[in-house]
Amino acid sequence: MTPATVRVSASLASTASASTSASERLPVLLVHGIDDDARTLAPLAAWLTRAGFQQVRIVELKPNNGDAPIAVLAGQVAEAAADLRARTGSARLDVVGFSMGALVSRYYLQRLEGRAHVRRFVSISGPHAGTLTGWLRYNPGARDMRPGSELLRGLSAEPAPFGDVQVFTLWTPLDLMIIPANSSRLDGARERTIPVILHPLMVRDGRALRAVEEALTVERPEDFMPRPLVPPREP
Questions:
Q1: Strand-strand pairing, 166-171 and 4-7
Q2: pLDDT at position 21
Q3: pLDDT tens across 144-163, in order?
Q4: Residue 191's closest CA among 163, 166, 160, 154?
Q5: What span, in angstroms and rounded, lies between the C-alpha atoms of 47 and 26?
Q6: Of residues 181, 184, 128, the one with CA closest to residue 154
Q7: Which string of DSSP letters, residue by residue, matches the chain?
Q8: Looking at residue 24, what is its pLDDT?
Q9: Quick one: pLDDT at residue 75?
Q10: Would you identify the CATH topology of the domain 4-223?
């Protein structure tokens, strides 16, 4: 595993109109999707550092093509999270997962005691109820992401799966990678849909990047409100 770390000086002024000051922000761990690497999440990492987050780390999942089961990749996230907490001296951190990385992060929270160390989890277009594109490959990671897989049924059956972790989901109804797109929903999560036209743009589109920042900085999870897909017309 070769994590990429993005740091900014404490003097960097936040560009966000958030209720949480930069000094109070927790370290953030970013987890990419299938066939991705740290470069995929670089725009999100840069956005968060400009917003005043001083410790943002991207986990490089190895292998990244689904040849390893979700459980194995989640172990890498657990290792990176422990290292980030040790390096920063922070008891807790926030986790943002994209696509397959959202499911990997969920496994870390539910099965590897991540919920004891995570304050907020932001899932971006994750295949939580499975995706039909999982049938396009026959390796272990793809099988885990198929609708009705043993892994997904087990995760969904757990009572109170996230403990005290505050969970947010962002997804696009136009997704052609997560099929059906509403598989990205999670029970009990604060949710926002963003009509981004392509799955990869969910970690590049300004609306999605702002939503991630808001989810990590809003004072109360209930203040993270859904947004209409089409803005209302002026009267």
A1: unpaired
A2: 57
A3: 999 999 999 999 999 999 99
A4: 166
A5: 15
A6: 128
A7: ---EEEE--TTPPP-S--SS-GGGPPPEEEE--TT--GGGGHHHHHHHHHTT-SEEEEE--SS-SS-S-HHHHHHHHHHHHHHHHHHHT-S-EEEEEETHHHHHHHHHHHHSSGGGTEEEEEEES--TT--GGGGG--SHHHHHTSTT-HHHHHHHHSSSTTTT-EEEEEE-TT-SSSSSGGGG--TT-EEEE---SSGGGGGTSHHHHHHHHHHHH-SSGGG-----SSPPPP-
A8: 73
A9: 98
A10: Rossmann fold (3.40.50)
- pLDDT at site 227: 72
Alpha carbons within 13 A on the beta-carbon side of 191: 16
Domain ranges of the chain: 4-223
- Residue 217 corresponds to which amino acid? T
Tell me, what DSSP letter sits at residue 42? H
Between CA 133 and CA 83 the distance in angstroms is 33
What angle (nearest 5°) sits at the alpha carbon of residue 193, between those of residues 16 and 76?
Answer: 75
Region at 163 (left for phi over 0; alpha for psi -120 to 50; beta for the rest): left
User: Mean pLDDT per segment of 10 residues, for the chain of length 235 residues?
Assistant: 39 39 82 98 98 97 98 98 98 98 98 97 98 97 98 96 97 97 96 96 97 96 79 47
Euclidean distance between CA atoms 13 and 38, whole angstroms: 25
Tokens of 155: 């995760």
Q: Which helix (H) or strand (E) holds 212?
A: helix 206-217
